[in-house]
From TrEMBL:
The keyword Transcription regulation does not apply. Gene3D superfamilies: 3.30.70.20, NagB/RpiA/CoA transferase-like. This is Iron-sulfur cluster-binding protein. Residues 1-10 have a biased composition (Polar residues). Residues 1-31 are annotated as: Disordered. It holds the Pfam family Fer4_8. Residues 339-368 form the 4Fe-4S ferredoxin-type domain. NCBIfam families: LutB/LldF family L-lactate oxidation iron-sulfur protein. It comes from the Bacteria. Keywords: 4Fe-4S, Iron, Iron-sulfur, Metal-binding.
Amino acid sequence: MDLISKQNRGQGLHTAGGNRATRASAQPVRGRPVVQITSPAFKQNAARALGDAGLQKALGKAKGAFLQRRADAVSRLPEFEQLRDIGRDIKNHTLANLDFYLETFAANVERAGGTVHWCSTAEEARATVLDICRKADAKTVTKGKSMISEEIAINDHLEAHGITPVETDLGEYIIQLRHEHPSHIIAPAFHLNREDWEADFRRMHTDLDPNRVFNERRDILAEARTKLRSRFLAADVGITGANFLIAETGSSVIVTNEGNGDLTQTLPRVHIALASIEKVVPTLEDATSLLRLLARSATGQDFSVYTTFSTGVRRPGDLDGPEEYHVVLIDNGRSNMIGSEFQEMLRCIRCAACMNHCPVYGVTGGHAYGWVYPGPMGSVLTPSLVGIDKAALLPNASTFCGKCESVCPVKIPLPNLMRHWREREFERHLTPRAVRRNLGLWAWFAKRPGMYRLATRAAMGTLSLLARGKGVFRSLPLAGGWTEGRDLPAPEPGGTFMARYAKMQREGR
């Protein structure tokens, strides 16, 4: 039974399949479309992305900056590798005792005057948020950036019931104007160029001076703040995510660089913090250790500009703060990962370092992955939450270069976890028939070393004849899937690897 259902006195076993039904049953609304799972169309999505000149320009410009800033930040902290071990151990300990720390967190939230809502599924979480908003007679809700809110499609649900959600993070605000979804977990508008931002501002804000030029990102940020100021003041409810939940104090923690998160949770009368169950950590000291990893891995900062701890409701004498503080704890399939080979994925602190360094994400962008979580972390997490039948292509969208694991601040073995999903895919016969047939043929030869050596020698000889002195094959029968997008190097003289290795061994090299 999942952890949330235990708290809800046995409301029933939740599986990741329940989330698939959630997506299918969501109602389309005005504004941006309901998130649909298009992961089965990853190949088509990626092909479109590769042909999109604007996207390729944006990816090329943004990615390099992330990589350099992270490298510089890590170089300034000699104990960074030791800190990675500490972060990994904190998360492992917490996951091993997750029920205890969740109960401790909930008790301390309530002690501080807040309310904890335990939600097994996305449907339960949406219904809970809507109920809180209705009790507050909310017409407008301001939102800080939150990937879990994307996962449960809360914007769509609120709009469908007459409540207007307003994204206050600049990137989220832009893509809300465009009726799109985030393409990156910390930089939602990663796929856009500055001219795209300006065009959308002019399209949606007709009162702008047509002669005004936005030369810098900060010019657009200043304009967005002007437009959003009245929304902050008018909002009845503020919704944020949570980077961490601290069991010791019942606090939720958010990090931002724009200050919008602070305004979202302190100005409205009601603050709702949405968080998945693995965000809890035992103590304040643990949270600060992970915060030292988070900003350096995500944006190359020593610390984010704003790091905000929220604990309960406004107390007598406080200058600001909400009258009601609600934490909506969401399982949505994560309990199924506990104790499985995918438990390590729950260590993720959502820094996006893996996707920033991923060569596949770097040319396809996030929308190609077809759901909320892109890149290597999405290639592991998405099958866990929506089912491998809907996301089988994602674990295969990897070169297995290992860069994602080498930069992960909590040392998640992402390539190994993707291999586990490939195994699951093969076991369930989800792999294309041609692939299974060819793997079967290769396995037959691999189990027979003599036949394998004979076959490879024959293949090398044939390819050498066909190459006729050329360095590469631009097309080749039975290899069209490869040569359609890249050249196939011709074999070098000297025979197979095994033959060359045996020769070197004989020669004592």
